[in-house]
Amino acid sequence: MLSNHHYKMLKKFFLFFLLFISIACNETKKNETNIQLDTIKVKTGSKIVNSLGETLTQESRKLVEDWPEYKVLDELINDYYNITNGDALLKAKDLSTYSQQLRDSIRIDILDRSDIKIRLNVLYNTSLRLADMETIKTIKSEEIKTEVTNIIDAFSAINSKINNILAQQNIEKELVNFEK
């Protein structure tokens, strides 16, 4: 039979054990699921939603319609306007590959300029940063969101520059016609 002292110790141990189990069980979150991506855990329940960036004008769309690398990247970027953290990281390798292909394949003479190349390099480097995040064990959702926003901003800057180049070209044509 247990002595009174042993009984009290056993009772305290049992209460401590119950308290520990209840705390451990309460720390699991019910609304968020986690997926394992190589070595990191990413909350998939949170969506990254960005406002629509600058798009190409109708005239600019006609200009890039024979640039397949642009079209592929444009379709992939559209996914990033409303994407989960996990999907953003899963697609990051493709994004960096397509960004590199776009950067290395300027097919339109009036776009083969340093200001376009700089913007393409920014997009490529930003996409590489997102791809690198997949390997970081302690990456936070907010950091992924920031990088996705930077990617959308970089792509919008490319679109804006293409639109501005064509607008400038049209103004110059009008000036030449006006002077005649």
User: Measured on Cα atoms, how large is the radius of gyration?
Assistant: 27 Å
Q: Count of DSSP E strands? A: 4
**Total individual domains:** 1
N-to-C terminal Cα separation, in Å?
115 Å
The largest β sheet comes out as: 2 strands, antiparallel
Mean pLDDT: 82
Structural class of the secondary structure composition?
A: mainly alpha
Oligomer: single chain
Care to describe what's here?
By secondary structure, this protein is mainly α. 66% of the residues lie in helices and 8% in strands. The protein is built from seven helices and four strands. The strands form two sheets. It has a two-stranded antiparallel ribbon with strand order 1-2. A two-stranded antiparallel ribbon has the order 3-4. The longest helix has 39 residues, at 141-179. Mean pLDDT is 82; it is low at 27-44.
In a few lines, what is going on in this structure?
The chain is mainly alpha-helical and 180 residues long. The protein has one domain (48-179).
Topology:
Blueprint: H1 4-26, E1 34-37, E2 40-43, E3 47-49, H2 58-64, H3 68-79, E4 82-84, H4 85-90, H5 92-103, H6 114-133, H7 141-179
Antiparallel strand pairs: 1-2, 3-4
Helix pairs in contact: 3-5, 5-6, 6-7
State the main characteristics.
mainly alpha, two-stranded antiparallel sheet, 66% helix, 8% strand, rod-shaped
